[in-house]
Amino acid sequence: MGLEPIKTKSLTQITKESILKYIRTLNLDVNNKLPSEENLSKDLGVSRITVRSALNELATEGVIFRRQGKGTFINVEAIKLNTKLNPINEFGEIIRNSGYKSKIQNISHEFINADLSLSNILRIEEGSDVLILKKTFFADNNACVYCIDYLPLSILGYDNDFVSDLLKYNDS
Fold first, then answer.
1. What is residue 159's three-state secondary structure?
2. What is the mean pLDDT of residues 13-32?
3. Which regions of 53-160 does DSSP assign to beta strands (E)?
4. Using CA atoms, how far apart are residues 110 and 167, in angstroms rounded to an integer?
5. Which among 137, 62, 142 is positioned nearest to 107, based on CA atoms?
6. How many CA atoms lie within 13 A of 87 on its CB side?
7. How far apart are alpha carbons 154 and 172 in whole angstroms?
8. Pairwise CA distance, residues 87 & 11, whole Å
9. 76 closest CA partner among 157, 12, 133
10. Which residues pair with 136 in a beta bridge?
11. What is the pLDDT, as a whole number, of residue 76?
């Protein structure tokens, strides 16, 4: 018959979308700190585990970052971007739509100066700072995608130290 099964969103995905909707209502010029996991849990009517999972996805996507003992903060520059800088959503969706639980593990990151070849590919000035991110995508704990991203720091608007700190807090 040509009918496709109805796909429902997970509670984590719905929670993530609610948090994103909440973020869009905030005046980020005044404050970019999110409420605690406990408060988000109470306000959204879901468990802290669900909130933590949603926040982990948002952190992986670069929308938020965490500072231990300080809180969870919105990455204002990432919210301003109209396009995603990586295929995390797409790979995760493909994995979930195939019936598996999706997980992403950051393997490593390093900073390099673009050589002539890389600067031509990325259309940046030779010698520009570039962040290299390596990560693995899992489907039910089985590695299925290995990804290397090359991100010119000039489009992120941050220096190496800030990005390094951001990655360190997202990994913890």
1. coil
2. 87
3. 64-67, 71-74, 102-113, 129-139, 142-152
4. 10
5. 137
6. 14
7. 25
8. 22
9. 157
10. 105, 146
11. 79
Which has the closest alpha carbon to 150: 116, 107, 111?
A: 111
CA 86 to the chain's CA centroid = 8
Of residues 78 and 140, more confidence is placed in 140
Give the integer Cα–Cα distance in Å for 98 and 159. 38
pTM > 0.85: yes or no: no
Q: In the numeric block, which tokens belong to residue 114?
A: 């673009």
Count Cβ neighbours within 10 Å for each residue of 82-101 and write b for 16 or more, e otherwise. Answer: eeeebebeebbebbbeeeee
User: How confident is the model over 130-143, as pLDDT tens digits?
Assistant: 888 888 999 999 99
Tokens for 158? 């941050």
How far apart (Å, rounded) are the C-alpha atoms in residues 102 and 20? Answer: 20
d(CA 109, CA 163): 10
Model pLDDT, residue 88? 62
Question: Which residue shows structure tokens 């009918």?
Answer: 3
